[in-house]
């Protein structure tokens, strides 16, 4: 390791030694701030995704109620296993995703998985911010007669940017406090949906034949696909969890924190879209809840839930990507990510029929994320045998410099396989990408230095 590189690595590690507010770093994280309870609540509060609502809407007419429920549950348990597996490196060594990926993709090559992960995060950030702003606007129009969606979108986005700058200390506080409110609101929203539309739903959703074949497994991938982004960069979060939790318990924490919110939101989207034909949650609950105070509370919940989900899921990943590529501070990167969300044109994603478009979006980006997930898992468990050389991961002039062609070729193979079976793209990509990466790393000379 060169003197300059050694000094940089030492400086980064020193910066990580004390966890000041918003002082996030790419260095190994020594000060862990989340115990098991906080970690569970962080994932719980961060998984109230309007995207899940849209995925529920997208399987209407394909699955019956039992099939939709099982598809969501299976997707959540696959997510739990995948998060525990890929988050092991971050949990053990305290490193973020962008550093974890260096051993497989190379220092320069990590830009590929980083950017592939960042794009859907920014799109979801803008989409969910627009939904949250719509909820605030409806509250304002109802109570005060002030109706200006653009104003609330801009205000709401800058509020989230401010919260994001606080880093994981702020995320921990926000998610832990908000979880009880989120659970209570979801239960009420589910109850209101059944009360309002129960008669219309019972006959059609329970008696329709549906499918247990490819559409069913495609649906499990849709609900899984919402979190395929987080399965890639889970080390960004696991590095904050205090040591001492076995992998089996971590799997349970992930699965059981994600399941309630995903199940409620997916089924609510499924049921109300079947009954009303609309996938816009704001309009759905405006029609479902007759009591004005309860409607205002519900709408405020929708807005709050977008904040908790965005700050955890959609801000941190692209922020670390910007930090790694452009060598900028966490606070500056979060502001840039927040501004980029304005450019996603989220109002286009809430048009009638948008659920089908979002379904295609999830299937497509999952085709790119699945291969990268497989490569990271094979690299850590098979090539490295769960042992990483931290010094090499921070040495830009060492064996991991440049681009590892094995990872790029394996990613391409996985993408082709995934797009050939687009309905189950994430599943279809895993074996082709993982096997290709293993064979190239073992037998192709140009990749041997990355095996060190």
UniProtKB/TrEMBL annotation:
Q: Which InterPro entries does this entry report, sorted A to Z? A: Pur-cyt_permease, Uracil/uridine/allantoin_perm
Mostly located where?
membrane
Q: Keywords of this protein's UniProt record, alphabetized?
A: Membrane, Transmembrane, Transmembrane helix
Give the UniProt subcellular location, in the record's own words: Membrane
What does the record say about its membrane topology?
Multi-pass membrane protein
Family listed: Belongs to the purine-cytosine permease (2.A.39) family.
The protein here is known as Cytosine permease
Q: What is the lineage of its organism?
A: Bacteria, Pseudomonadati, Pseudomonadota, Gammaproteobacteria, Oceanospirillales
């Amino acid at each position: 390791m060169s003197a300059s590189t050694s000094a940089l690595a030492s400086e980064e590690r020193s910066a990580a030694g004390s966890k000041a507010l918003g002082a996030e770093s790419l260095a190994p994280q020594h000060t862990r701030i989340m115990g098991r309870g906080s970690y569970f609540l962080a994932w719980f509060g961060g998984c109230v995704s309007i995207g899940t609502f849209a995925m529920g809407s997208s399987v209407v007419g394909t699955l019956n109620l039992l099939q939709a429920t099982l598809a969501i549950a299976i997707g959540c348990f696959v997510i739990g296993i995948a998060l525990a597996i890929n988050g092991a490196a971050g949990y053990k060594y305290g490193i973020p995703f962008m550093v974890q990926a260096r051993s497989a993709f190379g220092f320069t090559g990590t830009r590929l998985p980083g950017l592939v992960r960042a794009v859907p995060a920014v799109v979801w950030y803008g989409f969910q911010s627009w939904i949250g702003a719509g909820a605030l606007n409806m509250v304002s129009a109802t109570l005060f007669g002030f109706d200006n969606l653009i104003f609330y979108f801009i205000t709401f986005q800058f509020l989230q940017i401010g919260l994001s700058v606080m880093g994981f200390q702020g995320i921990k506080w926000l998610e832990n406090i908000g979880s009880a409110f989120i659970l209570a609101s979801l239960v009420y929203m589910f109850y209101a949906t059944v009360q309002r539309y129960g008669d219309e739903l019972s006959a059609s959703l329970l008696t329709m034949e549906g499918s247990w074949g490819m559409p069913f497994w495609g649906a499990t991938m849709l609900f899984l696909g919402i979190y395929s982004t987080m399965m890639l960069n889970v080390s960004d979060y696991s590095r904050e969890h205090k040591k001492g939790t076995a992998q089996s318990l971590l799997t349970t924490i992930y699965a059981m924190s994600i399941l309630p919110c995903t199940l409620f939101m997916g089924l609510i989207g499924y049921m109300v879209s079947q009954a009303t034909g609309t996938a816009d949650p704001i309009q759905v609950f405006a029609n479902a809840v007759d009591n004005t105070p309860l409607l205002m509370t519900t709408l405020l919940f929708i807005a709050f839930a977008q904040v908790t989900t965005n700050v955890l899921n959609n801000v941190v990943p692209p922020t670390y990507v910007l930090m790694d590529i452009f060598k900028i501070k966490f606070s500056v990167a979060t502001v840039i990510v927040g501004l980029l969300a304005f450019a996603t044109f989220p109002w286009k994603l809430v048009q009638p029929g948008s659920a089908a478009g979002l379904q295609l979006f999830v299937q497509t980006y999952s085709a790119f994320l699945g291969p990268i997930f497989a490569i990271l898992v094979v690299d850590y468990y098979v090539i490295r045998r769960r042992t990483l050389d931290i010094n090499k991961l921070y040495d830009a002039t060492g064996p991991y410099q440049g681009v590892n062609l094995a990872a790029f070729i394996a990613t391409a193979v996985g993408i082709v396989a995934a797009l050939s079976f687009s309905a189950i793209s994430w599943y279809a990509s895993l074996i082709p990408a993982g096997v290709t990466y293993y064979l190239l790393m073992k037998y192709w000379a140009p990749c041997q230095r990355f095996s060190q």
